[in-house]
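Explain my protein.
***
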Amino acid sequence: MNMQHITGKSQLRREFLQLSGGCATLTNFSLLSTILNLSATNAVVADSGDLSGYKALVCVFLYGGNDAFNMLSPLTPGEREDYLTARGGVYQSGNGGLGLDAATLHPISDPVTGRSFGIHPSMPEIQNLYNQGNLCFLANVGSLVEPTTMADYQAKSNLPLGLYSHSDLQRHWMTSVPQSRSHVTGWAGRMADCVTGTANGSENISMNISLNRVNMWQTGGHVVPYVVTAEGAAEVAWYSKSGIQEDIFTTLTDDALSRSYGNLVEKTFAKANRNALDAAIEFNAASNAVNLTTAFPGDSLSIQLKMVAKMIGARNHPAVAQTRQIFFVSEPGYDNHDELINTQATNLQRVNQAFKAFHDATVELGVSDDVLTFTASDFARTLNSNGKGSDHAWGGISLVMGDSVLGGRIYGQYPTSLAPGNELDLGRGRILPTTSVDEMVAELAMWYGVGNNADLEQILPNVRNFPSVDSGTRPLGMLS
């Protein structure tokens, strides 16, 4: 089509829609990433809890199953020897052992139990954050339907579906309904449903923002994640740009998306396109207005967390105007059946650097008390070696970081012995979880402002199976 020969806007509109296939095919011009990029409206409002001030949760999901008991391993005499027995000795190239040399670890102690531990050699900044009280470990946490004993496991009594399966355990972490594969909402999405009516001021940008991927964790009945890249939201290349042709296409797009469509599907799709286009522009304007002096490394995890920091910095921007936000970032590469030692060392070095930079950024922004960052992963890995690496297991260890953390502590129950055949060993060093994801999430949700009432039960359908949640205090006591 030669734009110089077009003499009327109506003729241009007809030719444009004919060539593009109509309004629906405007998506071919990247007018929106996906309908799931839209924020939701008309969500319910939490009927109790404290929604004052600003709070943000940041989930760092380590896809594949992090070998948790090498991220944090015992140094207490006796416990150390049991660990090395379970891991087949200290790793040396070709010997099949998976144990770490104690001399390479970053030592810490748990002041309550008096036990000593070593943080992975790649994580010196995590040691510093722990010692400064800005970070804690949550030990032996995993998806459970209810408190589960070894006898329950052997009797297959009310266990999560698909144990040791990547897809199932990822789903269970995100939904916190491990007895079902039919749940299509996640606990962060349901939590956003409960609070978005009072905490979300933006019509276009969801309080749930995901880096690089749609995820079940942030998907609620009303709220869905707004998906962006580490560089920002994808905008239409020619929309609202200077130039004759760009001006024509912008006018046509605005006209097509503002019409009164009789067909409900066309009307809904046009609104979706309009909101997504506006959201991308608003998101980038808000994030680009934030200038951080904190230096972030250039790896994928760090640049994702840098974008999270910028959006937290933009929380008061008119396009955002949110007092509650939930972010999802992720890293692949933790399914280490082969070359566990070297691969995990590289992976955890990135976590170490990214967490340090992100904490520094929250301090710079003045929100280090108001942001909680935590890790999740499919499961831990077998203590037993397969000759090169480790395989799928269950109970693992999470990091929880922020100035609201009562840090310098290890919460949950780190097994007193990792020796083969210990009281929690399900075989091959698969450890039966003693803390549920529900207990961890209940602690985070109460800090976030959700009341310990029907709202919490909406977020976590199994939560009343765990007595610690009804103790009158927060279930784990790890947050101020």
Q: What stands out?
A: The longest strand covers residues 55-62. The chain has 13 helices and twelve strands.
